[in-house]
Design goal:
four-stranded antiparallel β-sheet; 15 strands
Amino acid sequence: MNTPTPSTTLVASDLDRTLIYSAAALQLAGPDAKAPRLLCVELYERRPLSFMTETAARLLEDLARDTVFVPSTTRTREQYFRIHLPGPAARFAICANGGHLLVDGESDPTWHAQVKDRLAASCAPLKEVREHLLSAADPAWLLKERIAEDLFAYLVVDRARLPEGWVKDLSEWADGRGWTVSLQGRKIYAVPRPLTKSAAVREVARRTGAEVTLAAGDSLLDADLLLAADRGWRPGHGELADTGWSAPHVETLTETGVIAGEEILRRLSLAAAPSGT
């Protein structure tokens, strides 16, 4: 069997807690003097917010030159544009969990319209879900509530005060209305089930002629992306790790935190190389 060349390989990766990490998510072990050098890749209100190791940065720079690299995030476009990843700018990027397909930094209007039509036809409206979130949440632990790109909703919560079982109850309520719930750090996402990263990645693969898709992610919102890929990787932390999620073609790393991000990029690079080793 012929091995596809790097130019036919599409690499779709989640960003937060997969490739980039906040200070709270670094999970660095050992003495400070032996910690890896970090590169800041995002500022928020003129303060450093997200990081990767310098080794990860070099790996990503090479990977982005040799493959069709597609950042795939649940972030809004505004939040995504704060990130400055090493290497050439990605021609394609996925924001709002697949709601926006960016081409050279601009949202593809045809894709977005198709997504909106699909959501309207197959799941409960955003208004209903938002109202339930607000009525079910307790001000004692609810810090913020947001609507993202008029597509989905999320809450920012005090995890220490979040009642046990609350997310499970919300998930059961949402499931019957065609929505998915994901707990990531301090954020609880409620996302329409048809709103997926994998659908947008398949569209990029169609446009680029990519023959092989590699993927990485850490949350339940990345599960569909990993399942749709030919090979996938997930770190030793995150929602997928907490729930014991697995698939035959998805490798589970033992590394956690920012070191896991570096190892994911190392394995993606090896898989994307002509030898595929």
